[in-house]
Amino acid sequence: MSAEPARPKGASLEDEFQKKALASGRVMVNQLAILVKVAQMHDLKNEAVVNSAQALLGTISPFFEDKKSVSLNLIGEYLFIEDVRIKYNVEDFANFDFLAGAFRKRKLGSLIFNPLVDADQLILFVNIFLAAQTDTDDAHHDLALRIGASGVSGISTEELKAPRAEDESERIIDAARAAARAYVRVVLRVKELFEAIALGEPADIRKLKRAVQSLIDSVYKSEDVLLKLSAIRRQEDLFPRHFVNVCVLSLLIGKQTGLSKYHMARLGMAALLHDIGLENRPREPGEEAFESLADHPRAGVQTILKLKGLNEAAVSAMIVAYEHHRNVDGTGYPKAVETKDLSVYSRIVRIADNYDAVTSSGIFGSEAIPPERALRLMSGRAGSYYDRELLDKFVSAMGLYPVGSFVMLSDGRPAVVVSPGKGKDRPSRPLVAALVDEGGAEFLDLSGKDGGCKLSIAGTLDPQRYGVNVSRYLFLD
């Protein structure tokens, strides 16, 4: 009998298991999702079902070398193998979203496999899984009873647990921190992309795609934090921050529109790369700079063609790079040979790009205009420059007084808008930080919910006239 290979010095069983979980978790989720999908379409004896079950078994079985059982767990929005969160790529969105949704519908928190599981049991389990009740309080109980009656011995389940109040509070804090990390990470990845392009090196954007994935997760969990980050105006990292801000704002519109996570991933990458043709632009205003600006949609398509790792998202990114300065009425640039409808991604990015450009110091240092005025100007061009329905959704997401607006309250105090607010009055009654002495702030919810603040916004102010840096008030709460 050959000797068992020695474990690396300092490595533990838990270390080895974590490596295995990180390496195989994504594959397991994809295979299980595929097995469920093909079982919906084919007879259980169909070759596609059998092959899918055998492939899944091949991924599960190695875990039993380290543990007597292994569980696939749904915790919040994420899937875990034991306590190891499964990381996935943009291309995996559809399968991860499908499986997480299927777990939630059946109130399934954990799917536990043991060494008795085989391909036949996997097929039988999936048949039970599809037949079980969904969207009821007894959904998991029904699933567990069916498994027990079937004689499946290699698979068991545990019910999805509702988070405790204190757990929910911690989750919100963790989500806010994760959103901030995701934003900063994408900015860094964009800067790395710029450096590679400037050096003429082949740019591999797989890390950028993973960073965008985290940003998409944060749009669903901590939208307010991303709005605050996108409202910060400073010259440091202005250009890469513009890329990321347009990505964030586009994703917010996509969320309001109800795009699937698959399409959110496509939209996110396309929005992030929309201005990539400007990376080699002249840095100072002038005729050469104007020509470069006018030509950057074509330059963007050429740059995207050279990127490595974009795969099927490349087509969407190239279309958006080319179309994002064209208007819904057919005007704009580059001039089209024939008028055609813009892609939905291009129409979304057109709104996000214009808003971020005019409310910041601009690509060439043009004077910024206040956020609420920008929305008014854009609303006046709904139906000609911008898709009217998508612009309405953008205003709904941002509020009539977007985050970063400097306003006067009805009691005469100046305030900074820090969140669009909640409820049906959200567009006109945001959360604000009313300025107090020594740079402090009093946070007020102008919605007046639950007998709260009855103040309203009387008008807008120029922060420069008051010497106020609105960015410093966005993260005081």
Characterization of this structure:
The protein has about 475 residues and is of the alpha+beta class. It folds into three domains: about 15-160, no CATH class; about 165-400, Hypothetical protein af1432; about 405-475, no CATH class. Helices cover about 50% and strands about 10% of the residues. The chain has 16 helices and ten strands. The protein has a five-stranded antiparallel sheet with strand order 3-2-1-4-5. Strand 8 and strand 9 form a beta hairpin. The longest helix has about 35 residues, at about 165-200.
Write the layout of secondary structure elements.
Layout: H1 13-41, H2 47-60, E1 70-75, E2 78-81, E3 84-85, H3 93-105, E4 108-113, H4 119-131, H5 139-150, E5 155-159, H6 165-198, H7 206-221, H8 223-231, H9 238-257, H10 261-272, H11 287-305, H12 313-323, H13 344-359, H14 371-379, H15 388-398, E6 406-409, E7 414-419, E8 431-435, E9 441-445, E10 457-460, H16 463-466
Antiparallel strand pairs: 1-2, 1-4, 2-3, 4-5, 6-7, 6-10, 7-8, 8-9
Helix pairs in contact: 1-2, 1-3, 1-4, 2-4, 4-5, 6-7, 6-8, 6-9, 7-9, 7-10, 8-9, 9-10, 9-13, 9-15, 10-12, 10-13, 11-12, 12-13, 13-14
